[in-house]
């Protein structure tokens, strides 16, 4: 596999974490323009862990995810109770504050006579774990997709679980959900924590993939792209956001012809899609229909409208 | 003490243009209950057209301002058509995200058309600043302040004393009842969009003329400033928009004096975040309680 | 005369109006009674153009109103005093009245009409510069009626004017309804308060579960049966 393809696929894999992070919040009805903040926190945390503290990669990635999750809970506490519009703007404000704080953040340790570490706007160079430990691009790619697969499996299990149903109920109507006995505030915080951890994990992977971080990368555009991926690909399933990522990075960024016009096409695509399919390509209704068709194919008895079991003809 | 007053004066002057930006934002939000994140970028399109006539045709400031205005209005109507008009009631999220998507589109289109990082803008005034006792007042800042105040007064008159304004306020108060008294709500919304874009166009011109240049970052900058000022002042409140703008300007001026430009931006966002966490309705607005119009 | 024929209005797949037919004769007070959820407000909103019916027709003196925008329906001469009043809370009483006359171009006549409203509703005159949101329930109801009248409608629709009001105030509202009708306005009125409604109505319809189930004059049906069906529906009456 040539390097360019490996690079694109790695990119797709890493960005998928942000897309899934925003998706998880969309499930509970929260629009976040700020998941890039947790992506950044995870990236810096994991980068510092391997480059400055000499931690192994798996521990650093976990640390990044944990930091993302904790930060998300801290932000979520005062904001999740807000009306959706205020919440969205609050996430925007928070993420920009994080970016600006990273511009001031300096933490350097001397290793082998050289200062290593985040240096404000000059960035954080030298996250060289994968080079120092002979992890080739293909192996890292496998790591990214391995983790992504685990996350996807987890999310799909979540969707079938009571918790997943609770999330969607909160997304539909929090008052109704509360009346049905769901602890709304706790569920929201849990979703926020998971989303933050997901973004943090992605950030950690990103840091080691590119070996270089600077605050400029983690701007509003990144967050809005993450949000847009779910809205394009569909909110019916965790695969939806991945389709969004594929369309943007896989198609638009990689195919030369489109490259110069990527935002124009992507922007227009999002706008048009939101008119005709406001919940994305793989929206809840389509996924539900696919689910029923598949069960029919496999001959499993499906309860009909009146609850009686009925085998398909 | 002198510094404090000087900074406050400077803050009020820059804040007056933030107030105009917030005014445009709040007009759109008031009538549609949706946030237009392409507001800044549509003003930027106007500004790019303005700089084009300035550079290519050596146009005078009046022409530049007219072209900027027109461009902003046209871009604003494009956004309205694509992101707001076709969305069914209840698709507030979709509109907001769609407007952000069009932002990306407009920004790239502008950069493709005019690829240099910065383009010149005609200045508001040249010459030495005025001395008012121990304080220094830049002439172009003063013009910006007067322009902003004059425009705010005009918009106020329009909203509170004209027939069109009565209709807009009715829609802002209760859209269903507005339909019931025979207001053509759809047409009024389009006109409100055009008005908001025009106000934004003037605000943009004033700011860029003081800066004497326009960059592709302007779209985002204008949106963020307008958004913060609007939220501090109170969503959907017209006097709140001006007040929020002035307050933001003052906060920024003082932060910049003591901590420099990066911390200044940090304080602006912090003010916004604190406002949302503690008093989402802002100073003069009402806190929203109805469920946010979710994506379909 | 306002004529509704086989009107069907649905919310998504759920039909709230399943083929409603009725008439409000010119110069008369026609009343629509029925339990909650029968579809009365849906009918009013459909006539006013806020909701678009799927099938059927709405005609005013033979002119088709179905499918028109709410603004055009006001031009045609139909004005609705909506359920829950829906005054413009942060506008003054005076501005609310002006808004009611939004489409009219005859400024002098509008000013005269406003004076007429103040004469008919003296409490509104007292409060003319007050914000409508600060008025009492009864005053808001009067404002809502006055606002609707400002468009000089041929037919005045009223959706539950007595809702949430004290009995004395309700009596005054109905006195005004009768007075308006005497002065020539056709009134089509939806009410939960069957007793008061039957005092003023010339003709009434009973609506249950999206259909008209009875049409007649007060007195044709024993009042307690009417009241039972208006509150509870046919299944539990008699």
Average residue-wise pLDDT of chain C? 88
Helix content of chain A: over 70%
Order of neighbouring strands in the sheet with most strands of chain A: 1-2
Overall number of strands of chain A: 4
Total of helices of chain C: 9
The domain tally of chain C reads 1
Q: Which fold name is given in CATH as the topology of chain C?
A: Rossmann fold
Write the CATH architecture name of chain C. 3-Layer(aba) Sandwich
Order of helices and strands of chain A: HHHHEEHHHHHHHHHHEE
Biggest beta-sheet profile of chain C: 6 strands, mixed
What overall geometry of chain A do the principal axes of the alpha carbons give? Answer: globular
Give a brief description.
The complex is a heterotrimer of chains A (313), B (296) and C (238). With 296 residues, chain B is mostly helical. Helix content of chain B is 74%, strand content 3%.
What do these coordinates show?
The complex is a heterotrimer of chains A (313), B (296) and C (238). Helix content of chain A is 70%, strand content 3%. Chain A has 313 residues and is mainly alpha-helical. Chain A has one domain (3-230). In chain A, a hairpin with a 5-residue loop joins strand 3 and strand 4 (309-310). The longest helix of chain A has 27 residues, at 184-210. By secondary structure, chain B is mainly α. Chain B has one domain (2-126, 135-278): ABC transporter involved in vitamin B12 uptake, BtuC (Orthogonal Bundle). In chain B, the strands form two sheets. In chain B, strands 1-4 form a two-stranded antiparallel ribbon. A two-stranded antiparallel ribbon of chain B has the order 2-3. The radius of gyration of chain B is 19 Å and the shape is globular. Chain C has a single domain (2-85, 154-236), classed as Rossmann fold, CATH 3.40.50. Helices cover 37% and strands 26% of the residues of chain C. Chain C contains nine helices and ten strands. In chain C, strands 6-7-8-3-9-10 form a six-stranded mixed beta sheet, with helices on both faces. Chain C has a four-stranded antiparallel beta sheet with strand order 2-1-4-5, covered by helices on one side. In chain C, strand 9 and strand 10 (211-216) form a beta hairpin. Chains in contact: A-B, B-C.
Q: Which labels suit this protein?
A:
heterotrimer; A: 313 residues; mainly alpha; 14 helices; 4 strands; globular; C: 238 residues; alpha/beta; Rossmann fold; 6-stranded mixed beta sheet; 10 strands
């Amino acid at each position: 596999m040539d390097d360019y393809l490996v690079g694109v696929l790695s990119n797709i894999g890493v960005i998928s974490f942000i897309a899934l992070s925003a998706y998880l919040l969309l499930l509970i009805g929260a629009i976040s323009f700020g998941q890039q903040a947790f992506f950044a926190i995870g990236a810096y945390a994991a980068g510092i862990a391997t480059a400055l503290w000499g931690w192994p990669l798996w521990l650093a990635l976990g640390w990044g995810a944990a930091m993302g999750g904790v930060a998300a809970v801290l932000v979520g506490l005062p904001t999740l109770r807000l009306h959706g519009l205020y919440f969205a703007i609050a996430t925007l404000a928070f993420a920009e504050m994080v970016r600006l704080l990273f511009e001031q953040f300096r933490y350097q340790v001397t290793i082998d006579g050289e200062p290593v570490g985040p240096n404000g706007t000059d960035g954080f160079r030298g996250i060289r774990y994968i080079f120092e430990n002979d992890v080739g691009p293909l192996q890292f790619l496998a790591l990214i997709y391995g983790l992504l697969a685990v996350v996807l499996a987890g999310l799909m299990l979540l969707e079938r679980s009571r918790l997943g149903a609770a999330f969607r109920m909160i997304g539909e109507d929090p008052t109704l959900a509360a009346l049905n006995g769901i602890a709304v505030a706790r569920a929201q915080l849990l979703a926020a924590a998971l989303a933050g951890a997901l973004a943090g994990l992605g950030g950690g992977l990103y840091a080691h993939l590119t070996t270089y971080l600077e605050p400029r990368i983690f701007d509003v555009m990144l967050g809005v792209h993450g949000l847009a991926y779910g809205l394009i690909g569909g909110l019916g399933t965790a695969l939806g956001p991945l389709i969004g990522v594929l369309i943007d990075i896989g198609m638009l960024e990689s195919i030369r012809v489109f490259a110069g016009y990527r935002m124009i096409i992507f922007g227009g695509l999002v706008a048009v899609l939101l008119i005709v399919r406001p919940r994305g390509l793989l929206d809840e209704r389509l996924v539900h229909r696919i689910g029923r068709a598949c069960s029919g194919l496999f001959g499993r008895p499906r309860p009909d409208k009146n609850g009686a079991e009925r085998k398909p003809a | 003490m002198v510094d404090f007053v000087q900074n406050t004066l400077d803050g009020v002057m820059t804040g007056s243009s933030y107030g105009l930006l917030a005014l445009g934002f709040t007009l759109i939000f008031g009538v549609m209950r949706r946030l237009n994140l392409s507001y800044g970028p549509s003003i930027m399109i106007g500004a790019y057209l303005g700089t084009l006539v300035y550079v290519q045709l050596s146009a005078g400031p009046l022409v530049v301002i007219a072209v900027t205005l027109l461009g902003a209005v046209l871009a604003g109507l494009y956004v309205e058509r694509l992101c707001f008009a076709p969305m069914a009631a209840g698709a507030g999220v979709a509109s907001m995200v769609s407007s952000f998507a069009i932002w990306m589109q407009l920004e790239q289109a502008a950069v493709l058309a005019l690829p240099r990082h910065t383009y010149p803008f005609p200045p508001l005034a040249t010459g030495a600043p005025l001395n008012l006792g121990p304080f220094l007042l830049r002439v172009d800042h003063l013009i910006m302040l007067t322009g902003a105040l004059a425009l705010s007064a005009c918009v106020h008159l329009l909203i509170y004393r004209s027939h069109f304004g009565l209709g807009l306020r009715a829609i802002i108060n209760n859209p269903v009842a507005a339909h019931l008294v025979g207001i053509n709500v759809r047409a009024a919304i389009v006109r409100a969009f055009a008005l908001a874009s025009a106000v934004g166009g003037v605000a943009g011109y004033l700011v860029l003329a003081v800066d004497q240049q326009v960059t592709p970052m302007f779209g985002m900058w204008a949106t963020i400033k307008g958004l913060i000022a609007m939220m501090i002042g109170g969503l959907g409140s017209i006097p709140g928009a001006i007040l929020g703008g002035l307050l933001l300007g003052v906060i920024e001026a003082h932060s910049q004096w003591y901590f420099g430009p990066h911390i200044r931006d940090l304080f602006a966002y912090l003010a916004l975040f604190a406002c949302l966490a503690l008093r989402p309705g802002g100073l003069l607005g009402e806190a929203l309680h109805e469920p946010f119009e979710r994506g379909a | 005369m306002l004529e509704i024929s086989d009107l069907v209005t649905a919310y998504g797949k759920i039909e709230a109006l399943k083929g409603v037919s009725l008439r409000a004769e010119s110069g008369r007070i026609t009343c629509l009674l029925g339990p909650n959820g029968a579809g009365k407000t849906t009918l009013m909103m459909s006539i006013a153009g806020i909701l678009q019916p799927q099938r059927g027709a709405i005609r005013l003196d033979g002119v088709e109103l179905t499918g028109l925008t709410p603004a055009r329906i006001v031009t045609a001469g139909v004005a609705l005093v909506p359920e829950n009043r829906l005054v413009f809370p942060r506008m003054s009483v005076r501005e609310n009245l002006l808004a009611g006359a939004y489409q009219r171009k005859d400024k002098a006549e509008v000013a005269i009409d406003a004076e007429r409203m103040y004469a008919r509703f003296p409490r509104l005159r007292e409060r003319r510069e007050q914000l409508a949101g600060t008025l009492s329930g009864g005053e808001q109801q009067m404002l809502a009626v006055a606002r609707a009248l400002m468009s000089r409608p041929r037919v005045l629709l009223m959706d539950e004017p007595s809702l949430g009001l004290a009995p004395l105030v309700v009596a005054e509202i109905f006195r005004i309804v009768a007075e308006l009708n005497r002065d020539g306005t056709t009134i089509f009125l939806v009410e939960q308060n069957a007793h008061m409604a039957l005092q003023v109505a010339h003709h009434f319809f009973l609506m249950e579960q999206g259909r008209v189930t009875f049409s007649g004059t007060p007195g044709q049906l024993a009042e307690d049966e009417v009241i039972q069906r208006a509150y509870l529906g046919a299944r539990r009456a008699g």
